[in-house]
Amino acid sequence: MDTSSLTVTSPLRAAAVLSGGRVAVVAPFSSGRYYRAEFVHRGWECVAVSPATAALPPLYQGGIAPIGYQGVVTHNGDLNATAQTLRALRVTAVVAGTEIGVPLTEQLASRLDLPGNDPRTSHLRRDKGAMAAALIQAGLDAPRSLSADRLQDALSWAQSLPDVEDFVVKPADSAGSDGVAFCAGPDDIRAAWTKLHLVPNAMGGLNNHLIIQERLRGTQYVVNSVSATNLRGTARHTVTECWADRRTPGTHLYDRLDLLHRNRLVPRVLTDYTVRALDALGIINGPAHTEVMYVPGRGPVMIETGARPEGFYDPHSMREATGSDHIRDAVHAVVTGKPRRLAADRPRATVARVSLIAPYDGILDPVLVNTLLDLPTVRGHVGNLVPGGRIKRTVDLLTSPGRLTLAAEDPREIDHDHAAIRGLEDSGLYLGGPR
User: Fold this and answer.
1) Side-chain-facing half-sphere of 223: CA atoms under 13 Å
2) pLDDT of residue 203
3) Contacts for 114-120 with beta carbons within 8 Å, 24 or more apart?
4) Is the CB of residue 73 less than 8 Å from the CB of residue 35?
5) Are 141 and 135 spatial neighbours (Cβ–Cβ below 8 Å)?
6) If you placed Cys at 51, which of 47, 55, 133, 231 could pair as Cys (CB 3.0 to 4.6 Å)?
7) Buried b (16+ CB within 10 A) or exposed e, 162-174
């Protein structure tokens, strides 16, 4: 029988917990790696829970191993064994570090009788087809969708919607725009299906069925939130960040995100919709990262949500610019039992995040990458942006070389440096392209 194993990296007190508590961070990768420092800052101990290396999707294999934790628990597939290990360690909270940790986090929290989202409805927070259906059942707008395991079913469904010109075909349970294909007709749908069906996705799942949806047209936004449940069992949701999401024209490649003031009209409308959507999807505890399209004539329509912190996210530069970030807000909810009370609008400069877009595989020019990082408004970045570092052609968020956080008092300075970033990309930032 599979069992969990525990590696102790520093003295662990199984019989006594720090006065603050002890948290297990499940799959502490991507933005989840920032949890440990913030929990320790709040007086809590941290244990990492990670699937065995062989069970990790390629995206996380060979990555940064969990370090600095009081212990690392390897989950080998036996839920009871892992739960027993965490119970013996007197764990008082369980959080998901990244998308692959969401279902296990919910199962462990339930087994340990700790706050968490109901694992019986976990599919609503992972399967994009089930997600859309749950929103519609709750009376909220969502993309018309079909979850299919046969190409003919997808084609027949698309033909049954004569008012829809374009469709999106994508994996049911991946992330970071992995596998997202825009389709203008049957030939495009066939091509996308052939490329994606029964192929492993970036999160380690197998695309044994795919989602086909109407393609929404409008302005896209990102809404980050944190939820907690009070003693009466009522969920309280706080929207902590709203971002206007600009993609490169005609693609799903990320260009730029602009942080919006929370007391403006659009963020208020998005907040109202997102809070109701979180209820419909059973998100009652922890952070969520939601993508919403504002469609003219329809209003907000959720594209998808993830019950974990936003990925490809730099909390340090966000804290410098705004005073907080998605990780810090999530930790506050765990430590205090309630989301952070926010002012009508946090004092902050103008903030944007710009994703790099590499047109081909290559390496980073040693001079230009330093020029990039030295731009006046750049406050920090995620990604391995080192001189001479190897990069892959950008096809989605997961293959972007990096994302820069920009902040300034004058928004024109942001626009200037955004243009400078694209100019550096055009003038040789990426070496080794086609000759």
Assistant:
1) 31
2) 83
3) 115/228, 115/229, 115/285, 116/285, 116/286, 117/282, 117/283, 117/284, 117/285, 117/286, 117/307, 118/282, 118/284
4) no
5) yes
6) 55
7) eeeeebbbbbbbb
How far is residue 172's CA from residue 129's CA, in Å, rounded to a whole number?
7
Residue 271 in tokens: 């907040």
Mean pLDDT value across the chain? 91
| Number of residues in the chain | 435
Per DSSP, 360 falls in state: S
Region 297-318: what's the mean pLDDT?
95
Q: Would you call 38 helix, strand, or coil by DSSP?
A: helix
Report the helix count and the strand count for the chain, using DSSP H and E.
Answer: 11, 20
Neighbours of 406 (CB within 10 A): 28
pLDDT in tens, 86-138: 999 999 999 999 999 999 999 999 999 999 999 999 999 999 999 999 999 99
User: Rounded to 5, what percent of the chain is helix, strand, coil?
Assistant: 30, 25, 40
pLDDT at 18 over 60: no
Q: Which whole number is the average pLDDT over 240-261?
A: 91
d(CA 336, CA 331): 9
CA distance 131 to 162: 24
124 DSSP 8-state letter: G
CA 156 to chain centre: 32
CA 47-53-54 angle, to 5 degrees, is: 145
Q: Rounded to the nearest 5°, which phi and psi values hold at 298?
A: -120, -35
- Unique residue bearing structure tokens 């929207």: 239
